[in-house]
Amino acid sequence: MSFENLDLHPAILHALQEAGYTEPTPIQAQAIPEIMAGHDLMASAQTGTGKTAAFTLPAINLLVTPHPARSRGPRILVLVPTRELAQQVNEAARKYGKFMRSRAVSIVGGMPYPVQNKLLSQPLDILVATPGRLLDHMERGRIDFSRLQMLVLDEADRMLDMGFMPDVERICAALPSERQTLMFSATFDGVIGKIALQLLKKPKSIHVAAPQTKHENIEQRLHFVDDLNHKNKLLEHLLIAPEVKQTIVFTSTKRHAELLSEDLIAAGHRAAALHGDMTQGARNRTLTKLRHGNVNVLVATDVAARGIDVAGISHVINYDLPKFAEDYVHRIGRTGRAGRKGTAISFAAHNERFALRKIEQFTGHRIEAAVIPGLEPQRKPQAAKPGAKHGHKHGSGKFTGNKFGGNKFDDNKKSGFKPRQNQSYGGQKRRDDGKPSFKPRGNRNFA
Ligand code: ADP
Ligand code: MG
User: Fold this and answer.
1) Is the dihedral of CA 350, 351, 352, 354 positive or negative?
2) How far apart are alpha carbons 393 and 408 in whole angstroms?
3) 213 phi and psi, to 5 degrees?
4) Atom of ligand 1 at shortest distance to CA of 311?
């Protein structure tokens, strides 16, 4: 099957050729004809399977036919959960619409209103938005939806998780009812399925499932960790390996992302944090640095890193395991992009086996445990040695307090691991080979 079979306008085919796409992905091959036939759609497929183009291509194709109305509001609205995703969809729309006269604009939170007001006052075809900010503008009467023909809800399950559904429903209620609605979601189980039935009219349903065969180009493994000290040593060991080009390290909270990135920078790594408390400008600058290779360790939270598409990411490290099995798939999908090979490494405390099992069930893929000589886990003996009872929340997965204070507890004797040098803090330490070495600062207090 080739794109030529899909009845897309030659200008779009030209753009696809330039993008280097030779054939549609399965979700594209299935969804595009249904969308072009005018059906509502509920579609689910794994991350990285090309869902953006699956809706963007037929959406742009719609623009080939001029709209009879004189007004200038958007003809296509795409709602997404995060700013990063908005930007990616916007870029995709521009890329695929390169040889057509179409205008795409994105409106997200965290950007100045005057700039957005100006964007919205000009004629536009495609509007990509996060729900909250869009609703703000709608309530101020700044958007004319009289021409709206198509609504796309991308990552609908995530919008539900993030509490955007009331906003989404209000937006939908304000749009022309004769529109076409497309909904993309990792799953349509439970609440999101009910919402789909409310929002969609006689939808076609497409589910591309191949969890066992997906991510074949991503090597997955895990390390059992005893405690934070152990985690930090493993992280350091992994980051300085020569095959590690660019890495995304996932932490469970924004704060931890911030602090871990600070520690990595202090240790001489070109690290940066990416999380939802940063301004849009700061996030963009960080992503640009990542794209250009000026940052090679990005410490990120799930939401902020979702959808990042940087071909140079060779490794994903789950410093903290994700809360939801589905997030695991989104995380590891940041590597192995554009047909390259990737490696995903998870750290798991011994008592996180249940969470691991859930991930394995979700992906249908067993994650093998690996050990690094000298950094093997030392399962705590049942009867703790005297002095070993240091009140450390051992592998609780929550690690309250003293998050990066691993050095407080000298596990080295137990593990037989010899630190390269005496622990010292505050200086930029470099190894002889010029690779930075990571020394977590001790006694960080998070309370
Ligand atoms: P999803 O939304 O399903 O997670 P994306 O739409 O972000 O996936 O696409 C993942 C990557 O695949 C992007 O880098 C995109 O440019 C690329 N891609 C999409 N469709 C094709 C195609 N038909 N051929 C080659 N690459 C593609
Ligand atoms: Mg997507």
Assistant:
1) positive
2) 13
3) -95, -15
4) 14
Give the separation between CA 179 and CA 263, rounded to whole angstroms.
51
The fold of the 3-207 domain, in CATH, is: Rossmann fold (3.40.50)
- The answer to pTM > 0.90 is no
Tokens matching residue 100:
């057509």
Site to substitute for ligand 1 among 49, 85, 155, 183, most atoms within 8 A of C-beta = 49
From atom 18 of ligand 1, which residue's Cα is the shortest distance away?
50
Q: Which CATH architecture has domain 218-429?
A: 3-Layer(aba) Sandwich (3.40)
Q: Which residues of the chain have pLDDT under 70?
A: 209-214, 380-447
What whole-number distance in Å separates Cα of residue 316 and Cα of residue 335?
A: 6
Ligand 1 atom, smallest distance to 24 CA: 23
Residue 381 exposure: Cα atoms within 13 Å on the Cβ side: 9
Specify the residue for token string 């963009």.
284
Give dist(CA 333, CA 311) in Å, integer: 11
pLDDT of residue 380: 54
**pLDDT (tens digit, 9 = 90+) per residue, 20-72?**
898 899 899 999 999 999 999 999 987 778 999 999 999 999 999 988 888 88
Domain residue extents for the chain: 3-207, 218-429
Please give the mean pLDDT across all residues of the chain.
Answer: 84
Hey, do 3-207 and 218-429 end up sharing a CATH topology, with the first three levels equal? Answer: yes
Identify whether the C-beta of residue 237 lies closer than 8 Å to the C-beta of residue 231.
Answer: no
- Percent of residues, the chain, with pLDDT higher than 90: 66
